[in-house]
């Protein structure tokens, strides 16, 4: 693997160090994650023309999220419903008021981007587990350090 040396302007270096400290990670790790996140955003700026029913919207984290065009239904929701809940494309179409073609495009998109979507699903489940554990312990209101999820 190629190694890169980065000379950051002083102000940016200070900001990186502050953000890394808040995340509890070394500045080098923070820079690596920031670059990886930016590359992922750039790779997904444009919709796949072969799947006209799929587009992107900006998620809560500011990252692009694949959704069924004209809806706010995430591709990962369709993937979960199919693979974890065992719902068929026909059942999903009826449940969400979509066409089977829209569902099938979502499933094709999931197949093409399975690693990143599975990572997003796992990150959400990890966050949900963390929050629920804090609520169950009665510590949710206290300041807590949330896990950083890329």
From TrEMBL:
One Pfam family matching this protein: DUF433
Organism listed in the record: Planktothricoides sp. SpSt-374
Name of the molecule in the record: DUF433 domain-containing protein
């Amino acid at each position: 693997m190629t190694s890169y040396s980065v000379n950051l302007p002083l102000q940016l270096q200070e900001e990186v160090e502050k953000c890394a400290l808040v995340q509890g990670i070394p500045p080098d790790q923070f820079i690596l994650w920031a670059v990886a996140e930016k590359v992922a955003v750039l790779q997904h700026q444009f919709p796949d023309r072969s799947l006209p029913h799929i587009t992107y919207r900006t998620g809560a984290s500011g990252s692009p999220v694949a959704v069924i065009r004209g809806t706010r239904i995430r591709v990962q929701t369709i993937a979960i419903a199919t693979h974890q809940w065992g719902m068929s494309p026909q059942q999903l179409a009826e449940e969400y008021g979509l066409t089977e073609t829209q569902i099938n495009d979502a499933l094709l998109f999931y197949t093409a981007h399975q690693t990143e979507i599975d990572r997003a699903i796992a990150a959400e489940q990890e966050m949900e587990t963390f929050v629920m554990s804090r609520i169950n312990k009665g510590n949710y209101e206290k300041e807590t350090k949330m896990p950083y999820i890329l």
